[in-house]
Amino acid sequence: MKVIVTESFAESCQLVAQEIIDVVNQNPAAKLGLATGGTAEQVYPHLVKAYQDGKVDFSGISTVNLDEYMGMSPEHPVSYRKCMDTWFFDQVNVDKSRTYVANGLNDPEAEIAAFNEKLYGDKMLDFQLLGVGVSGHIGFNEAGEYLTAGVHIEQLDESTIQANSRYFDSPDDVPRQSITMGVGDIMKAEKIVLIATGDSKVPVMKRLLADDRVSADLPVSVLKLHRDATIVIDRELYEKATR
Ligand code: PGA
After folding, report:
1. Which among 108, 162, 177, 230 could disulfide-bond with 2, CB atoms 3.0 to 4.6 Å apart, if both were Cys?
2. For residues 132 and 201, is the Cβ–Cβ distance under 8 A?
3. How far apart are the C-alpha atoms of 133 and 118, rounded to whole Å?
4. Do 226 and 1 meet the contact criterion of CB atoms below 8 Å apart?
5. Orientation of helix 202-210 relative to helix 235-242, angle to 10°
6. Dihedrals φ, ψ of 52, to 5°?
7. How far is the CA of 49 from the centre of ligand 1 (A)?
8. Pocket of ligand 1 (CB under 6 A)
9. Distance CA 70, CA 179 (A)
10. DSSP assignment, residue 55?
11. What is the pLDDT of residue 188?
């Protein structure tokens, strides 16, 4: 696992966007694993700008998103489908029929099968973008006694419910369940880039960077086992996490 320390969060976003642009420019038919969340959200404007400036063409890509809330309509304003459409898909020339964000209203078993078909039906992910939760989750793979390899339904951690409640009227409105890629699905991507910033991520980064251990209690630590995983954090976060 490589760690890149930038001078600012803005620089981190620019750098991560450039990684994605490079993947697509090298392989116009790239299959991208995408992420939502307040951190990843800031990466997409750079992709949109690069598209508008003619520096990248998204017409040949396909995408699979990490996760979605269960029980939530794709039309809901904070569904991850809606976020992806608004932040990225509707602003560039991607073929939306080749974008997949799980449908939280579907029968769970049927949607898990559909998710697997999108992940493995043609080819593997060339790239996976990640954020990290205050719980240490990647996708919605929460910390616990064990991790799950494949696509599954996951109960949200209490800390995730609290963190995500900022998008809802109250914590009671945050869905309790999600459908998510498992850690094995994420780890099969050719290249992984994680972006993190802010004081709420200091405890997680502190644990991640403290040693060489991999633990189900800190899901993001599995990235230490990947041959091409990079963590991009700004100096402020890096210094708070390593002092
Ligand atoms: P955040 O979410 O960027 O909104 O902190 C990241 C995540 O939960 O993966």
Report:
1. 230
2. yes
3. 25
4. yes
5. 60
6. -65, -30
7. 23
8. 37-39, 131-133
9. 6
10. S
11. 98
Nearest to 68 by CA among 22, 21, 38, 103: 103
Distance CA 220, CA 140 (A): 11
Centre of ligand 1 from the C-alpha of residue 131, in Å: 5
Q: What is the best residue among 132, 202, 218 to mutate for testing ligand 1's pocket, by most ligand atoms within 8 Å of CB?
A: 132
Q: Which atom of ligand 1 is nearest to the CA of 139?
A: 9
Element (H, E) at 44: helix 44-52
Atom of ligand 1 nearest to the CA of 132: 9
Ligand 1 probe mutation, 34, 36, 39, 160, most atoms within 8 A of CB: 39
C-alpha 8 – ligand 1 centre gap (Å): 18
Atom of ligand 1 nearest to the CA of 130: 9
Identify the residue whose tokens are 């969340």. 37
Task: Supply the pTM of this predicted model.
Answer: 0.98
For residue 47, what are its two tokens?
A: 């992709």
100 beta partners? 64
pLDDT, tens only, 110-168: 999 999 999 999 999 999 999 999 999 999 999 999 999 999 999 999 999 999 999 99
Q: Give the number of other Cβ atoms within 10 Å of residue 227's Cβ.
A: 9
For residue 97, report the distance from its CA to the centre of ligand 1, in Å.
Answer: 26
